[in-house]
């Protein structure tokens, strides 16, 4: 007689859970993460890491690659997406802090057309010496460049890219002269470096570390404030006698006008995921310094870098349509 009430209670709880399960799942919106670069690159790698880490916070997470125009195709698509918090973009800092100074006509306003979500991670570049240069140190690189500037060539994924302006900063910081050779993407620039058609390249350390370890190229310095754990034997530029320090970052943005509750969900999911020890360990192993910022902190970082890059870019006179 007395067992009946507890049994009924258990059945009621079970039934409530079954009914609440689908409803709870429906409360979670789907999420599409746009990436402006091909699969396999650093931006795609970061997007997929983050997408996997926040999968439980959304009904479904998909990563969609829309490569082209240095990431601008995907940035414009993100700008034009419905501002409901279900479409975002993960991208390196270049389109948001360099392109506004480089392009006369952008299809977007890097500040007004987007809602910052979270700064995911900082990263640095390697100064990469190829077979054509044979330079084993920054001192040797600069000596060669000053002796014969025509042979001091460096490649990049294109005019106005972050690696392009890393070279510009190197010139301004060292007093040496280099010839910039733009390519249609990082892959062709790597091919040219390995083939001896250019002497140097500025590249994300994680994308060059294996070539460095195999001896096919040599990373002679890194551009950040500290040595990179992937290549701990490689000095920073400051350790090498060049007063230059430059890093970039990956971040998530949503279209302008995203409702506060949708922004809060995105910010909480991304920031929380990046701050978990397992995620931090994965990012560090890949050469990225985890951050996991608030929306306001990303907005402040973007403003600071927009101001920082304006002078060196204008000094080059580079202006693209």
Automatic annotation (TrEMBL):
Residues 1-25 form the signal peptide. Keywords: Signal. Gene3D superfamilies: Bordetella uptake gene, domain 1, Periplasmic binding protein-like II. SUPFAM superfamilies: Periplasmic binding protein-like II. It holds the Pfam family TctC. Belongs to the UPF0065 (bug) family. PANTHER family: BLR1237 PROTEIN, TRICARBOXYLATE-BINDING PROTEIN. This is Tripartite tricarboxylate transporter substrate binding protein.
């Amino acid at each position: 007689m007395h067992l009946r009430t507890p049994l009924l209670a258990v059945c009621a709880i079970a039934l409530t859970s079954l009914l609440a399960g689908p409803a709870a799942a429906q409360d979670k919106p789907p999420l599409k993460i746009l990436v402006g670069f091909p699969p396999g690159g650093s931006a795609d790698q970061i997007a997929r890491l983050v997408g996997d880490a926040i999968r439980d916070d959304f009904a479904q997470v998909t990563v969609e690659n829309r490569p082209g125009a240095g990431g601008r195709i995907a940035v414009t698509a993100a700008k034009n997406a419905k501002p409901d918090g279900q479409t975002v973009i993960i991208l390196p800092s270049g389109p948001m802090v360099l392109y506004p100074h480089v392009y006369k006509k952008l299809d977007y306003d890097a500040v007004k057309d987007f809602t910052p979500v979270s700064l995911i991670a900082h990263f640095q570049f390697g100064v990469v010496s190829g077979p054509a240069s044979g330079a084993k140190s920054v001192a040797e690189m600069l000596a060669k460049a000053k002796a014969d500037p025509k042979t001091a060539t460096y490649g990049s994924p294109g005019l106005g890219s972050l690696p392009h302006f890393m070279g510009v900063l190197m010139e301004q910081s060292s007093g040496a002269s280099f010839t910039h050779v733009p390519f249609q993407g990082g892959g062709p620039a790597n091919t040219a470096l390995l083939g001896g058609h250019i002497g140097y390249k500025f590249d994300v350390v994680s994308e060059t570390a294996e070539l460095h370890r195999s001896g096919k190229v040599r990373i002679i310095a890194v551009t950040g404030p500290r040595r990179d754990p992937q290549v701990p034997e490689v000095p920073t530029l400051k350790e090498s006698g060049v007063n230059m320090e430059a890093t970039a970052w990956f971040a998530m943005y949503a279209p302008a006008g995203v409702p506060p509750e949708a922004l809060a969900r995105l910010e909480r999911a991304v920031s929380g995921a990046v701050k978990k020890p397992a995620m931090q360990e994965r990012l560090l192993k890949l050469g990225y310094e985890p951050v996991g910022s608030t929306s306001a902190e990303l907005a402040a970082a973007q403003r600071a870098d927009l101001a920082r890059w304006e002078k060196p870019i204008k000094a080059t006179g580079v202006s693209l349509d």
